Amino acid sequence: MHRFIPSTKEDKKAMLESIGAADMEALFVDIPKEVRLDRELALDESKSELEVTRLMNETLGKNISTDALTCFLGAGAYDHYVPTVVNHLSSRQEFATAYTPYQPEISQGTLQVIFEFQTMIAELTGMEVANASMYDGPTACAEAAMMAVAAGKKKKSIVVSETVHPEVIKVLESYLRHRDVALIIAPMKEGETDYEKLSTLVDETTAGVLVQNPNFYGVIEDAKKSVEIAHGKKALAINYVDPLALPILESPGKQGFDIVVGEGQGLGNDLQFGGPYLGFFASTKKLVRKMPGRICGESVDSRGQRAFVLTLQAREQHIRRYKANSNICSNQGLVALRSTIYMSLMGKAGMKEVAEQCLAKSHYGAKVLTASGKYKLAFDKPFFKEFALVGDKPTKEVNGKLVEAGILGGYDLGPLGVKNGSLLCFTEKRTKEEIDQLASTLEVI
Amino acid sequence: MSKIVEGLLYTEDHEWVKVEGNKAKIGVTDHAQHELGDIVYVELPEEDDELAKGDVFGVVESVKAASDSFTPLSGTVTAVNENLEDAPESVNATPYEAWMFELELSDTSELDGLMDAAAYKAFCEA
Q1: Distances (CA, A) of A131 to A70, A283, A287
Q2: Could you tell me the CATH number of the domain that includes residue A187?
Q3: Is some CB atom of chain B closer than 8 A to the CB atom of A319?
């Protein structure tokens, strides 16, 4: 018997003989006849590798992807550049095949990467500690809300801005539904959180206040206001951020946020049909014992050499059980590795340049798309790499025409109440020519 | 052999109680600190918290577990030992000096249910 070759007829016969079973049927003799299927499964006959390849190519050929379309779609998942080195290194067998370590201290290399990842996230967000990662941005956000509730002892509600990504809000609702915690939505005003209304909704029963920056509509908010409001009522201030924007925005740590979370996909990971993605989670040191997930620490071994450990594990569910901070007992190792390689490769200067290019290109886009007056910006507010554009036709129709021209249009904001509204995204990958082509195509729709 | 101090009252959860008027200071015994291992963090209640006998007053975290700790008496928290935040290991070193919190008792009859040093010694040896 070999690891990578299926058992032969002879192998099976020998195995059956050694346990004294006459045939395969003899192994199922304990299953009652009433629940047996009594027929073969309704599956196709097996196909040859060539037939399967042909079938897959035909099926996949019905898709079009960002390989063929110029992508102006964002809304939480972004077409940022992934340097080839990231693919090359993360595909190494030692990284790609290793499962999450259950005897972590034996995997010093794995722990070192996690430690580096945590350090970079802490630096990027301006926070004191970061964990080894969560499944994705939205669940990291839900865990942040629950951490605020746990830290707030008797507090019973979370106030979230309407400008937070609608799918993040849905995830929050799911997580809080069976806990005794109310989710209160603070309304938006002209594309930004209405901070005046927000302050009326935050009171002594509020455990946490959550705002997104840049928000779902791409608008750069005056998020510091939410910190003042939250702390004024002894609630925690939570920030949901775009890591690609952090190099040029005031750091959430400096703004006084208690917990910072977000989606790390844009840091060196492809769109990948929606996953696996990467949640990052950072907080003040004061709150570290309430933090969910794994945390990697730096220590010395018995010989005084630098060594890495998983630390503060007594909070986790395999030890603390039903009183654990969370039931998460994993992290997005490979995805976080790719982000770590990306951030190392780009460095502070490179990441700053990516942010500046996004800013420059989105503003150029806004300028040329609104030049003729046919389209307008929905909100007159500062923005980072996305903005909401309003035209004279429903987005679905516009996007259909754009696809014919080889362009992937923006997120349909119609269902969110912005009539004929489209959320367009301009990453560092977009060229002036592509943006001009978008503008000229939109002009004649 | 665990150390037991005269003049204190004890519980079956291995806590000690020092009564001072209508207040009581509460900590964990030598036996408890030995079982818990090296203590790295003590989560304490806040002043003015109202506790009923049997309520969780906090968490004692060692390298191997984070254990809920229960109050043997009912009352209002009047003080917490802030030293434990920076020096949780003092619970291991001097368990009878490292008091955790102080309660203003709401029901002194609850003291009747506690053990004296001799009874606690017998309990430990059983």
Answers
A1: 35, 9, 12
A2: 3.40.640.10
A3: yes
| B110 near A CB under 8 A | no
User: Which residues from chain A sit within 8 angstroms of residue B62, using beta carbons?
Assistant: 314
Indicate if A95 and A142 belong to the same structural domain: yes
**Nearest chain A residue (CA) to B63:** A314
A156 CB burial (10 A radius; 0-12, 13-18, 19+): middle
B48 and A CB contact within 8 Å: no
In angstroms, what separates the C-alpha of A320 from chain B's closest C-alpha? 6
Residues of chain A in contact with residue B63, where contact means CB-CB under 8 angstroms, are 314
- Minimal Cα–Cα distance from A315 to chain B, Å? 7
Q: What residue of A is the nearest CA neighbor of B41?
A: A289
Read off the pTM: 0.87
CB contact A320 to B (< 8 Å): yes
Instruction: Give the tokens for residue A310.
Output: 């998983």
**Domains of chain A: total:** 2
Subunit contact B68:A289, Cβ cutoff 8 A:
no
Does A214 reside within a domain? yes
- Going A425 to A427 to A430 to A432, the CA torsion angle's sign is positive
- Fold assignment, B14-106: OB fold (Dihydrolipoamide Acetyltransferase, E2P) (2.40.50)
Interface of A with B in 70-89 (CB under 8 A): none
- Supply the ipTM of this predicted assembly: 0.71
Strands (E), B29-125: 39-43, 50-51, 56-62, 66-70, 75-80, 101-105
Note whether residue A181 is domain-resident: yes
Judge: B63–A289 Cβ closer than 8 Å, yes or no. Answer: no
Q: Which residues fall within 8 angstroms of residue A102, CB to CB, at 6 or more apart? A: none
Please, what is the Cα angle at A131 between A80 and A278, to 5 degrees?
30
Residues of chain B contacting A289 with CB distance shorter than 8 Å = 41, 43, 61
| CATH (domain of A433) | 3.90.1150.10
Same domain, A328 and A383: no
Query: What range defines the domain where residue A418 resides?
Result: 70-82+350-443
Q: Are residues A397 and A330 in the same domain?
A: no
In whole angstroms, give the CA distance from residue A353 to residue A361: 12
The one-digit pLDDT tens for each residue of chain A (445 residues) are: 678 888 999 999 999 999 999 999 999 999 999 999 989 899 988 899 999 999 999 999 999 999 999 999 999 999 999 999 999 999 999 888 877 777 788 889 999 999 999 999 999 999 999 999 999 999 999 999 999 998 988 799 999 999 999 999 999 999 999 888 999 999 999 999 999 999 999 999 999 999 999 999 999 999 999 999 999 999 999 999 999 999 999 999 999 999 999 999 999 999 998 989 999 999 999 999 889 999 999 999 999 999 999 888 767 777 777 777 787 877 889 999 999 999 999 999 999 999 999 999 999 999 999 999 999 999 999 999 999 999 999 999 999 999 999 999 999 999 999 999 999 999 999 999 999 999 999 999 9
Q: Do A330 and A358 have their domain in common? A: no
The answer to whether residue A235 is domain-embedded is: yes
Which segments of B74-116 does DSSP mark as H helices, in order?
Answer: 83-86, 90-93
